[in-house]
C-alpha cells in the first residue's frame, strides 16, 4: 500500500488509506482526536484532552479511585483541589491530570511545567520546542519545512536559493546552507551580499 500524503500518526493500509493510531484522526492521521467529545464520554466525571490521549479527573469533593471512578471524600472537599485528589494513609494530596503540570505553591492548583526552558523536551536539532499547557510539541525551525520523506515526516532544509525566498542582491550569488543561506557578491562587485556595488 502506498500513501502519497503519508500517515503521520498511523499506518498505510491501502492506496492513500490510513489507519490511525489510537488518539488520532483525519485522512492523514495528523489531527489529535478529542476523546472528551466522544459519546459515550470516556470519563464518568471530568475529562482533559491531551495530545493523542486524555486524562480523567474528579470534581471538587471527590477523589480518584484506583479503578478510575470518583468517590466522595469530605477530606478532599476541605482541601479544595483544582483537579481532584487522592488519600494515602489518611493524608490528602491534590493531583494534576498531566505529567506536564505540577502542584503550585498552595498545593491545590496545578501550574504548567515549561519543558522547553527546563530542558525536559526532546526535540531534534532541526526542530524547536513549543510549550503548551501540560505538555509541549516540536515544530520545524526557521529555514526548515515539514515533508513526508522515505515513509515518515521530517523537517528538511528549505533551499532559499531555489524557492527564491532569499534577499540577495541581483549582483550576488545565493548559496544554500543547512537551515539558512548566504549571499556572495559576484566578481567585480563588493558588499554584504544583500547590497553589492
TrEMBL record:
Q: Which PANTHER family match?
A: EPIDERMAL GROWTH FACTOR-LIKE PROTEIN 6, PA14 DOMAIN-CONTAINING PROTEIN
Instruction: State the name under which the record lists this protein.
Output: EGFL6 protein
* Signal peptide range in chain numbering: none
Q: Which Pfam families does this entry report, sorted A to Z?
A: EGF_3, EGF_CA
Domain (EGF-like): residue spans on this chain: 32-71, 112-150, 157-195
Keywords on record: Disulfide bond, EGF-like domain, Repeat, Signal
Question: MF terms per GO, please?
Answer: calcium ion binding
Q: Which InterPro entries match?
A: EGF (IPR000742), EGF-like_Ca-bd_dom (IPR001881), EGF-type_Asp/Asn_hydroxyl_site (IPR000152), EGF_Ca-bd_CS (IPR018097), Growth_fac_rcpt_cys_sf (IPR009030), NELL2-like_EGF (IPR024731), Nephronectin_domain (IPR052235), NOTCH1_EGF-like (IPR049883)
Query: Would the keyword Signal turn up in this protein's UniProt record?
Result: yes
The answer to whether keyword Signal applies is yes
